[in-house]
Amino acid sequence: MQITAAVVREKSGPFIIDEIELTDPRADEVVVKIVASGMCQTDLHGRDGYYNTPYPCVYGHEGAGIVEAAGASVKSLSLGDHVVISFPWCGACPNCQRDMHSHCMKGFDLKMRGTRADGSTLMRKNGTPVFSAFFQQSSFATYAVANENFVAKVRKDAPLELLGPFACSGQTGAGAVLNSMKPKPGDAIAIFGVGAVGLSGMMAARVAGCDPIIAVDIHDNRLKLAHDLGATHTINHAGRTDIVAAIRKITGDGVRFSLETSAQPVVFREAVEALMPAGTCVLLGSARSGTEVAFDMPFLQFGRTIRGVIQGESHPREFIPHLVDLLMAGKMPVERMMTFYNLADINRAAQDSTTGAAIKPVLRMPH
Ligand SMILES: [Zn+2]
Ligand SMILES: [Zn+2]
Questions:
Q1: How far is the CA of 288 from the centre of ligand 1 (A)?
Q2: Ligand 1 centre from 341 Cα, in Å?
Q3: Which of 125, 178, 198, 324 satisfies CB 3.0 to 4.6 Å to 194 for a cystine?
Q4: What is the pTM of this model?
Q5: Which residues, 6 or more positions from 222, have their beta carbon under 8 angstroms from its beta carbon?
Q6: What is the maximum alpha-carbon separation in the chain?
């Protein structure tokens, strides 16, 4: 079918709105009419060649929409279902066999290679392949094809245009807290960086009853929003070197949990040094290969844990509906961090994401 998509033709080139051809779904795939798609830093890193995804390419991996067509063997989804398309996994590797889909050992290729696992693309223009299947979806388009295993069905009374970011940034932050940390009420937590991922983690920490909830960032407007969304304390990092002392002043012994989303080595070290004995720091910040950080060995010896987490270690088909329930109950007001753009304004959305003017851009598709 003919669709409208935002195509990037060269490294760091602009998104160009174009009419292209979307393939028919295979037996285990669905066609989703995309209502809205979040934009994530990973899309822009893809555009800029970080993952060596070939060009021309269609990005987008936070698609929300309505099932428009389904392959013959699709059982779990029906036409008209409201859905969010999440991350892909292979199902066969040692981690998938342990049900650790977010740590799939083929996950990187499935997300970044620009094709299905067998090398086929989902989109074409005048007979020439357009690399697509970014995160096995490429949702910066009016329609997307996705394997049913990666598609989460959600309740129909929830506003679809708010749900796309649960596919990546939302579950990355919220899942790191609810699935990986599993805090108890009254546990102290510090969130380093309150962008879309950090705020999602912070709202989840509030749901879990964490107290205090300390937000650290360099932007006053983000700290104000963090306060509105449940931070008990906010600290502006700009120009300060006593962040760990400030956190110990609030907590006494340090925090049980810290969440690192900034990808800055200095901040990562602070997130670890703010821990109480046996505390855990979860690293979400996505640093470039070669970035190193140093820690004091005796400090880590006291039961402190550092771990990296991908996609909130979630099973999206269960976890995303749970997050939607929290949204509908008023406990995860994600709309507070969103700025909406028409697909035609995608380059402005990308610029606002880079400058920080928008915390979470969401693209509305023309239909
Ligand atoms: Zn796997
Ligand atoms: Zn993402």
A1: 23
A2: 34
A3: 198
A4: 0.96
A5: 194, 195, 199, 359
A6: 65
